[in-house]
Amino acid sequence: MSDREVGLPVASDLMSDVLLVDADDILLLTSLASDQAIRTAHIVGAMGVVVHDSKPLPSTMSEVARQLKVPLVSSPLSKYESCVRLHAALAAEKNA
User: Fold this and answer.
1) What number of CA atoms fall less than 13 Å from residue 17's CA on the CB side?
2) What is the spatial distance between Cα 35 and Cα 11, in angstroms, rounded to a whole number?
């Protein structure tokens, strides 16, 4: 991913909602496997995109991610499970 720390995890499949987020270093968690997710992440300055539910990533999505330098990963977990685990990890890091 990135050397940046997660400022705010944002879980959404509605990219219009993501565009309204006013925060730094967001990590976009989505089930939307399309170029639109990458382009939206780039616009808001997201540190990366995680696509959930083992959805296959279209080659165009990977190419756009490379061009825009937006880290992209795929997760077999559900978006909900990823949010729970990420929250626990961030809370543990904060309390350490």
Assistant:
1) 8
2) 17
Q: Could you tell me how far CA 44 lies from the centroid of its own chain?
A: 11
The tens digit of pLDDT for each residue in 52-94 reads: 998 899 999 999 999 999 999 999 999 999 999 998 988 888 8
Domains of the chain: 8-95 (3.40.1390.20)
The pTM of the full predicted model, rounded to 2 decimals, is 0.89
Q: What letter does residue 43 receive in the DSSP assignment?
A: H
Structure tokens at 44: 């808001």
C-alpha 90: how far from chain center: 15
Q: What is the DSSP letter of 62?
A: H
42: closest CA among 26, 30, 31, 57?
26
Give the neighbor-by-neighbor strand order of the sheet with 48-51: 8-11, 26-30, 48-51, 72-74
